[in-house]
Give the backbone structure.
Amino acid sequence: MQNSYKRIDAHLSSLGYCTRSESKKFLNKFRVSISGVRVYDATKKAYHNDITVEDELLDPESLLILMNKPSGVICSHEDAGILIYSLLPQRWQKRNSKISTIGRLDMDTTGAILLTDDGALNHKLTSPKSEISKIYEATLAQPLRGDEAEIFLSGTLMLNGEKKPLLPAKMEILNPTLVRLEICEGRYHQVKRMFGAVGNKVLKLHRLNFGTFSIEDLNPAEYRIINYSMD
Ligand code: URA
């Protein structure tokens, strides 16, 4: 875990408590302490782990969050509409390493999504080399025709416009229009395009897990912080 040593105003502004220029006022209004001793000088240096605001430790220096994404929110900082970040506490939205999703889910897809402000972690988990398993539940427009599981498992399926076949994916049939699909890549609209390639259409898509992180305990729009280390 990081524990950086820097000025109080730098800690507060990078974690979204206030801007640097507001920090003097912030210290007058709220009880900010270093090892239990209240401070009024925003230029004073301290370790992150020694600082409290109103007796609460500062937010972690880097965040990894698991959310059960509801339908209708967008995994983007730019697009118009309800952004997934608006479901997080306001302070987290003001951190100065921006929180971003690790990969994306479509607006109408629900379920497990990770978010972080740790760029190196984001890069590591989205790299094609990481081959992290993700399990989706897909509701289909048409009953399965019978050869889909074999095609997906073959490692030969080519999606339109792509140069490399998909890695093998495992499909479990729950009923003729409901499947569980395990993939370990994250290509653009991958699941919808896979079913498109076998003459079907995904009506509903829900992601149950991202690697070892499962959202069983989370209602739509709920999230939890995950403790992690990069080692
Ligand atoms: N595959 C899709 O088609 N959409 C998603 O949101 C995720 C995977």
User: Anything to note?
Assistant: The chain has six helices and 15 strands. The two ends are 11 Å apart (CA to CA). Residues 105-106, 109, 189-192, 205 surround uracil (CB under 6 Å). The CA atoms of residues 161 and 193 lie 11 Å apart.
